[in-house]
Amino acid sequence: xxxxxxxxxxxxxxxxxxxSSSEDSRVTSFHSSARWQLHFNSIKDTSKLLVIDFSxxxxxxxxxxxxxxxxxxxxxxxxxxxxxxxDELSDVSQEFGVQAMPxxxxxxxxxxxxxxxxxxxxxxxxxVEKYRSL
Length: 134
Fold this sequence. Notes:
Layout: H1 2-9, E1 19-20, E2 27-30, H2 33-43, E3 50-55, H3 60-75, E4 80-85, H4 90-95, E5 103-108, E6 111-117, H5 121-132
Parallel strand pairs: 2-4, 3-4
Antiparallel strand pairs: 1-2, 3-5, 5-6
């Protein structure tokens, strides 16, 4: 029951890893700057598209678009999807100049190629489609 209450109020359980991805999702959530940096370093020299979802647990539009992000991750298996909570990893959010939620930053070869600010599913989908094959 303790973990249920912790999850309900937004806490994390001690067993929770620093980077987690649920079994049915291809979106990796990062809860540690060090873990994020390791992931970023491992992918920055590849041409694989990385979509970073900067969101917050209290953000209504972030929660609204989340199922669409998971659907995109399942559809675009050649794209890497990452989720970063701006309150947990404010240093990473600042590094990318995130000022509103949700913000989706699209990276290729470690460099930003585009971004979408707001819960604009169609715009994000078009940009993912465009950059994944470049």
